[in-house]
Amino acid sequence: IKHHNKRDPLFLYLPFQAVHAPLEAPKLDYENNYKTGIPPRDIYRAMLSRMDSGVAEIVQTLKDKGEWDNTLLVFTTDNGGAVSQAGSNHPLRGTKGTLFEGGTHGVGFVAGGLGLGTGSGVNNSQLMHIT
Questions:
Q1: CA dihedral defined by 19, 83, 81, 102, rounded to 10 degrees?
Q2: Other residues' Cβ atoms within 10 Å of the Cβ of residue 22
Q3: Which distant-in-sequence residues (6+ apart) come within 8 Å of 98 by Cβ?
Q4: Percent of the chain having pLDDT more than 70?
Q5: From CA 47, how far away is CA 49, in angstroms rounded?
Q6: Is there a contact between 33 and 86 (Cβ–Cβ < 8 Å)?
């Protein structure tokens, strides 16, 4: 991003594996996160925190380069969480790898300045499909 010419279109696909098995997190991220008392869940939370930091760094870099207003950021997941790996799909039934709602539903959001207008906080409960 830092070396990208703003005059050229940029498509960036970044499939984070940060919240994926095996449950491993950098020691500092683990130590700096609130502990629930459930060690696998605490590791998972540290992994998620690391991913959040990575996304925040990307967004900040786009803003620093003046490209955020011409950006459409789509954040999504490919499935529900793996309950066996400290994920939670509550209140939905099922887990990753099943056809129950907990295995197939995921959350997502769209951010950036490209075509989103001036409003914020729009909630859409409709299906979203990305190919």
A1: 180
A2: 7
A3: 104
A4: 94
A5: 5
A6: no
Across-strand partners of 111? 73
Share of the chain above pLDDT 90, in %: 42
Say how far residue 3 (Cα) sits from the centre of its chain: 24
Give 82-86's long-range contacts (Cβ < 8 A, gap of 24+).
82/21, 85/21, 85/23, 85/40, 85/44, 86/23, 86/38, 86/40, 86/41, 86/43, 86/44
Q: What is the pLDDT of residue 114?
A: 75
Model pTM score:
0.82
Is 6 a residue whose pLDDT tops 90?
no
